Amino acid sequence: MVPNAPTSTPRETVTPIVGEYIVSTPGTCSGEPRIAGTRIKVRHVYTWVELQGLTVAEVVANYPQLSRAAVHAALAYYWAHPDEIHAAIAAEGQFVTELKAKAGTSLVRPPVKS
User: Fold this and answer.
1) Domain ranges of the chain
2) Which pLDDT does position 9 carry in this prediction?
């Protein structure tokens, strides 16, 4: 090795795969990250796969407009931004709690069990 000789490094090519599938648009789905071309949010995919135990194949079977790559991209986005997704889940829970408090007791009777 020659002292002080310049070293060369191979150029790195970056392919933003997640960016092909995940978008955030102000005014659409509250600006939350979602699968491009759909209104399916990253947090929905996270819930289906990680909390409810569906496989990627089952998600695609239930939502044929999605590709396996899109579902995996949503999961990759979640794992890169878990605090953001959990904050969105908590905000929705809070919103539902507030709506229930405002609505009061339901006027619809529950079904009678026989």
Assistant:
1) 17-99
2) 62
CATH architecture of 17-99: Orthogonal Bundle (1.10)
13-41 residue pLDDT tens = 666 777 789 999 888 898 999 999 999 99
Say how many C-beta atoms besides its own lie within 10 A of residue 58's C-beta. 14
And the tokens for 23? 């978008």
Q: Which of 17, 21, 54 is nearest to 37 (CA)?
A: 21
Element (H or E) spanning 93, and its range?
helix 82-103
In order, the DSSP letters of 27-88 are: TSGGG--EETTS--BHHHHHIIIIIS---HHHHHHH-TTS-HHHHHHHHHHHHH-HHHHHHH
- Assess contact for 20 and 73: CB atoms under 8 A: yes
pTM of the predicted structure, to 2 decimals: 0.75
* DSSP secondary structure code for residue 13 in this structure: P
